Amino acid sequence: MGRGGCEGTQRHAGLVRWDRFMNHRPLAHRRYEPTHYEHAANCATHALWIMPSALGGAALHWQAGDGWQRLMAWVYGAALCALFTVSTAFHTISWKKSHLRTVEHCFHMFDRVTIYFFIAGTYAPWLNLRELGPWAVHMRWLVWMMAAVGSLYIYHFHERHKMLELLFYSIMAVCPALVILSMPDQDGVLELAVGGLLYALGVVFFKSDGRLPFAHAIWHVFVTLGAATHYYATWRHLYKPCALFPPSLRLLDEP
């Protein structure tokens, strides 16, 4: 066999090895079908963060100085938990879907809807616990209106126009960010920008299924990093620092 034939055989062998970890890209208007390895990675990369999200929301509640801060802590904590819980549930059902086609479809829609409310919940503490410009106050309820409209779009046009759907997510993420820039107090804006950049970089992998093995799991990692950065910003700049235990427990340490 000539050198060209050997190189072709080696390339083919390399493709065969990758086929274990990645399927071919889907046709238009069809969803990508992950391999078993990718399914496992998709589940694990978000399941690991369900409990930390619940503890993170509780930590903000313990640090809250008034009822409004406590309410925002639960809204934000619920959004975090919902994102990772629903994503894990969907990917688990999708992995074991032999007779759960309808349930899988519903959870896929629920997963996409949850992203809209996660964006709204992430912004909620910043829009309600910080002073905003007079023209920006309306964003406090507009962000939830955008989440509701996005949910209706998912219900009626799920998976039909993928790029349009991605555009809607991007618009919803950017509009409140522009409002936050009007805050007189700019503490935490840098961390919010870094978190937003991590989400944006992750979108590259979100759109790379069938081109890069474990692309969706890598997207999950970027989501986790972005969420962690935004959580740090919220904890550090909107709530009292260094309160890791409930007040009732901290009293035990006081003389």
Describe this structure in words.
- One of its GO terms (cellular component) is plasma membrane.
- This protein is mostly helical and 255 residues long.
- It has one domain (34-245).
- Helix content is 73%, strand content 0%.
- It is built from ten helices and no strands.
- The longest helix is centred in the first third of the chain and has 29 residues, at 67-95.
- The radius of gyration is 21 Å and the shape is globular.
Derived structural class: mainly alpha
- H-E order: HHHHHHHHHH
Radius of gyration: 21 Å
Distance between the termini: 84 Å
In percent, how much strand structure appears in the residues? under 5%
The level of helicity is over 70%
> What's the structural domain tally?
1
How much is the average pLDDT?
Answer: 83
- Strand count: 0
DSSP helix count?
10
Largest sheet: none
InterPro entries: AdipoR/HlyIII-related (IPR004254), Hy-lIII (IPR005744)
Membrane topology: Multi-pass membrane protein
Subcellular location: Cell membrane
Family: Belongs to the ADIPOR family.
Main attributes?
disordered C terminus, 10 helices, single chain, globular, mainly alpha
Topology:
Blueprint: H1 3-19, H2 36-47, H3 50-63, H4 67-95, H5 101-129, H6 139-157, H7 162-180, H8 189-206, H9 215-238, H10 247-250
Helix pairs in contact: 2-4, 2-9, 3-4, 4-5, 5-6, 5-7, 5-9, 6-7, 8-9
Task: Describe the structure in brief.
It is built from ten helices and no strands. With 255 residues, the protein is mainly alpha-helical.
